[in-house]
Amino acid sequence: MAEPLVLGIESSCDETGVGIVRGNDLLANEVASSVEQHVRFGGVVPEVASRAHLEAMVPTLQRACAEADVDLADLDGIAVTAGPGLMGALVVGLASAKALAAWLNKPLYGVNHLAGHVAVDLLDHGDLPTPCVALLVSGGHTSLLLVNDIATDIVEIGATIDDAAGEAYDKVARLLDLPYPGGPVIDQAAQDGDPTAIRFPRGLTAKHDLERHRFDFSFSGLKTAVARWVETRRRDGLGVPVNDVAASFQEAVADVLTAKAVDAAQHHGVQHMLIGGGVAANSRLRTLLEERTSAAGIELRRPRPALCTDNGAMIAALGVQVVKADRPPSSFDISADSGLPVSRILV
Ligand code: KG4
Ligand code: ZN
Fold it and tell me: Which residues line ligand 1 (CB under 6 A)?
């Protein structure tokens, strides 16, 4: 049987993404970002993001179709992010996907954004060996997932109890007067800093926390510790060594994420690990996780950084898996769900 051909639409936050995938082959991946419109606010403004999706959707679709050079009549389905994400942003993608599916008379698949961050790795490394532990680190979510089957069975085994890792990057960047989004700029600043300069706290790693929160994360204490440290330096009239703060903060984040991910894989007897989400593009996280998984005899899969941040290809890749698993398409009545749990892969 020919591999399924799926078009995927992503609009959960500030990226309008359209991807076209056949099997595990990436044919097109077009992304229009509204990030510049949010910079002066220091974070995504939902209303601004929704309007930007509305303007970018049709041109992005046209670019992806031209790039893939496929006949839309040959599509096996239209996949779209149904959640989680910003409500007003999600509905733009969902309405577009419904219109396209109705016009082309194709099945509609409303899928989970977080599962898409996992599925995108198939485009780089082929079919996923399961079970697999996925470390999902984005601007809105930070969790450890046990992936038993990418199309049907994902279990959350741990999650952040406060801020997401990406959110912590964005907040610390603001403290250091660095622009939004904070991840890439802190990653860059950290290259010239000393990661051992300041010992910042590792959330939920103390013995009494591990009893209840072994696989959970907390980054709000770390963010506060960085804020206090920076404030004290400024109050005392001392300069703030931005590169050292960035490197030390980044080390604290990478240390706790990798330690808990490896512990989760070992606890569940799992040989394979994968990272996904915007923060998975982080250079230190990628290196440290490679070191620690390799020392533990765990096989690590890391999608190329450009596929870690939000895009349409990840939704198309997940759509292909859902079609291959023969799951029934979504109804045209589905609505966006801003709090869709990761265990609901298809709505
Ligand atoms: O997955 P994503 O594109 O959107 C969400 O689903 O949230 O993730 C965006 C997040 C932002 O917080 C951004 O600062 C962070 O990913 N990020 C990074 C890097 N690139 C993006 N964080 C650390 N290092 C990076 N290189
Ligand atoms: Zn995302």
Answer: 13, 138-140, 166, 169-170, 181-184, 187, 277-279, 281-282, 309-310
* pLDDT reported for residue 30: 98
Asked if 161 and 268 sit in the same domain, the reply is: yes
* Domain count within the chain: 2
- Could you give the CA distance from residue 115 to residue 132 in angstroms, rounded to a whole number? 13
Same domain as 85, residue 50: yes
Which residue ranges in the chain fall short of pLDDT 70? none
For the stretch 296-337, pLDDT in tens is 999 999 999 999 999 999 999 999 999 999 999 999 999 999
Q: Classify residue 70 as exposed, middle or buried by CB count within 10 Å of its CB (0-12, 13-18, 19+).
A: middle
Give the domain range for residue 38.
5-120+311-324
The model scores a pTM over 0.90: yes
Q: In what order do the strands lie in the sheet with 108-112?
A: 25-33, 15-22, 5-10, 77-83, 108-112
For residue 196, being part of any structural domain is answered with: yes
